[in-house]
Amino acid sequence: MMHFLRRFLLTGLLFSCSWLAMAQTTYVISGRVTDAVTGEGIPFASIAIKGTTIGTTSDVEGRYTIRAKRLADSLQVLSLGYQSRFYRLMPVETQVVNAQLTAGATKLQEVKVYAKGGDPAYRVMREAIRRRAQYDPTRLSGYQYDSYTKIEGYVNNFSQKRRKGRSPGPIGRLLGKLPAITDGNGNPAVPVFVSETFSNFYARTNPEKQKERVLKSHVTGVGVSDGGLIAQLTGASFQQYNFYRNSLYVLRKDIPSPVGAQWETVYTFRMKDTMTLGDAVCYEIEFTPKRAADLAFAGTVWIDTMQVALAQIDARVDKRANINFVDELHIEQEWERTASGVRFPTQTQVTIDTDEPAPRAPGALIRFFATARNIVENQPKEAGFYDPSIELDDDYRMADVAFWQRVRPDSLSADEWKAMRVVDSVRNVPFIKVAGEIIKLGVLGYKPIENWHIDVGPLLYSYANNNIEGNRFRLGMRTNTGFSRKWLLSGYVAYGTRDQQFKYNVGIERILSRKPWTVVGYRQTYDLERIGVSADNIGGNSFFAAYSRFGIIRRPYFQEDKLLYFRREMGSGFTQTLALRRRSFEPLFPFAFRPQPQDDDQTIRSTYQVTELTSETRFAPDEVILQNDNVRVSAGATRKPIVTLRYTLGLRQVFGSDFTYHRVAFSLKHSFRMGVLGRTYYTLDGGLIPSTVPYPLLYTPLGNESSFYVGNAYNLMNFFEFVADRWASAQVEHNFNGLLFNRLPGLRRLKWRELVTAKVLVGSVSSANVALIPPADEQGRAVEGFNSLSRTPYVEVGYGIDNIFKVLRVDAIHRLTYRDNLSRTGIPVTPFAIKVSGWLAF
């Protein structure tokens, strides 16, 4: 799920908003800036509301207009060569402030222009970059602060007329009848999501760890509930924006920071003016991307003239950049000097204004607001304290109005109070309520039945059709926290109309401890399986797992699987799992094997049972784990690899087991940024089975016979094409994120992203495992064998285009080796194929 859950929150906000995105009272200040002597307009003067980053510049005639959602007591007006002045502001929605500036009595200081960089802004930025390690808060051994975050989501742009004078569509007309407030452009906006979260945030540098303890949270919205998962996703952990880093990871995109190492490569700077912010005089410097279509910020940065340190930044990414569904991304941040001398982001506001997904569909506006207070520096906790990285107080839902009034940085405006009231009215409108349930069912796959405290699903597995079962129907369920906070029950029943067989699964899990997370569970399953396509090698690809139940199933077998497991988070990113498993193999195809030499009965057999003891150690130091009711799920890792080591011991004559064997498997998964070249994702894995066992117990790489591209499969390898008892593989994908297409005028607007892939597999099978397969079974039928890799590795490479129509991906894949291989299934290989896939991405 690496990003699925966070993407669920933001995607849910964007798209529930889009088809059903903050608004406060808008204050409009206008006027003209003139020379006090000549009366002529002063162009490019800086006009700002005191103490904020809200401002503008005058036009060539000195005229200006400012629209703001909050006011201060005065307006500051300044221009090079003139004395700055302050004008009192009135608490009214519209006012005119004409400013007259007097020429400065002091001479301007000498400005030295360097050959490199040109504009004096480069001299300031070069020094700010040189000093950034001195002011970067990550240089502290540790820090903690009180965090308040607020997220608001609105539907907008539904009342205006469309192209060619068309009236709003049916959804727009429906939204027009709902309770609304007025946005900054004077248009109605319907609130559909509001959340507030108060938490303690902790971080340390060595080892690099962070933790958020959610103390209180309140969530109201369409298609969401006031649950723990949303409370974690809306807290401070996902609102960390440090412009002193080389890049910011926003909406799954790496955007270079104008105060990072690539400042001069990516951006152009221009000295605009000087400005007083609080007690500091700051350089006001504009920055823009050197290439307009690059994924980079544009905006203004304020650098303290005394410390040459970051004081404020106003950064935007507009629709020209390669981010889906986003008209504009806007980050405003205030940095303050702390007692230790570093700079710390004390207030951050992120605004995402979406474009309309369809010509007559509405848009959405999302705003994230976060503050940091009561900062404590250089007092890191012990490393174990930071596990888990996010946790909820038991009474996090219990907070009265007085509590929120106390922790809010500023009192809410009348419109914000109205938004909180209106969102409850909106979510209870019958059509909107149904739409929210559809969105939730589509994303989560489960339908809650409130009175019984169970969830029915997943919807994806409800039906399949194949040559063995005919029409397969399945009904599944699981309990939720309404049933118990300690016990989790789950299961399903399935039936095939052709084989007329019932299949089932029952599971029970007991939460022994939530800190550290410790569970024990038991699961029993009886179902139809196929060799080479199992839950062990499919992983978390639920769509591909559902697809594998359709069509022709070759080498099918029934399996009864009993699993007893114990899992515990050990701290520092380690999770340990111990499992005892017993499973049977009942083939529905010609299959046989010779018994091991130590067996008294040397009769050729076709069925077997195994009992396995498994130890799995997983190390993911950078991973964020979220708690979804009684289930723990991963929100992914961005900087450090995830390593998994698994050892399996087959126990002969334990619960009727037929074999003794050993299996060791290792995997490493990681991604890293390559500057402007994009991001690389790679997976390395390998393993060894130094034992003699039937081939269904060996390693079968995951093939893919579908027309869809599957990330963890070999996409031009057939199912069960190869078997190995020792293997190693590397799977690499590099996404250039539009590096080339953004520079081609004809393709720039399409926002396509080019990528390349490569997958390599080496492996072999021992002669003892080959000899274990007899030519015929006990009934005299010819036994199907298997293929193995030679000294030549299996290699496939590809290139593709991502983000077609914002959801589609097309890959062209070439198989470079074993191109004339005819597997024992009789299916010829495909040396080249075009495969498609799709998902909602930013």
TrEMBL record:
Pfam families: CarbopepD_reg_2, DUF5686. Residues 1-23 form the signal peptide. The lineage of its organism: Bacteria, Pseudomonadati, Bacteroidota, Cytophagia, Cytophagales. The keyword Protease applies. InterPro entries: CarboxyPept-like_regulatory, DUF5686. Keywords: Carboxypeptidase, Hydrolase, Protease, Signal. The keyword Signal applies. It comes from Spirosoma sordidisoli. This is Carboxypeptidase-like regulatory domain-containing protein. One of its GO terms (molecular function) is carboxypeptidase activity.
